[in-house]
Amino acid sequence: MPIYEYQCNQCQRKFSRLVLNPADAAAVTCRCCDSDNVTKLISTVAFHRSDAARLADFDLSKPRGDDFYKDRQNIGLWAKKQMQQRGIKSSSQFEEIVEKAQTGKFLEEP
Predict the structure, then answer these.
(1) 25-66 pLDDT tens trace
(2) Domain limits of the chain?
(3) Angle at 18 between CA 45 and CA 5, to 5 degrees
């Protein structure tokens, strides 16, 4: 079900509206001032890729900034790519350690 974002042209506030029927999109009014003078905004879009797809596109030779290493998902990806590039088949223990590191559970263990 689409959730559309709008901006009121009268009070300048932004708001979201769940639109179940396309015909209802024409009758949207501002929640704050009840004006029907609203503009539909273009929302940001996100997409998700599988670990396998990310691993296939991962380039070890590309320089990494500090932000790269702050993302736990990237550390696991880097380790997996290193193993793959060296022709080493990862063990279930290695996969478990990477999974714990990526989810933050590694830090929770005593």
Answers:
(1) 788 999 899 999 999 998 777 777 887 888 888 888 888 887
(2) 3-40, 51-103
(3) 45
DSSP-derived secondary structure for the chain: --EEEEEETTT--EEEEE-SSGGGGGG---TTT--S-EEEPPPP------HHHHHHH--TTS---HHHHH-HHHHHHHHHHHHHHTTPPPPHHHHHHHHHHHHTGGGT--
Q: Give tens-digit pLDDT for 4-18.
A: 899 999 999 999 988
**Which tokens is 106 given?**
């590694």
Do 40 and 3 touch, CB atoms closer than 8 A?
Answer: no
Asked whether the beta carbons of 30 and 15 are under 8 A apart, the reply is yes
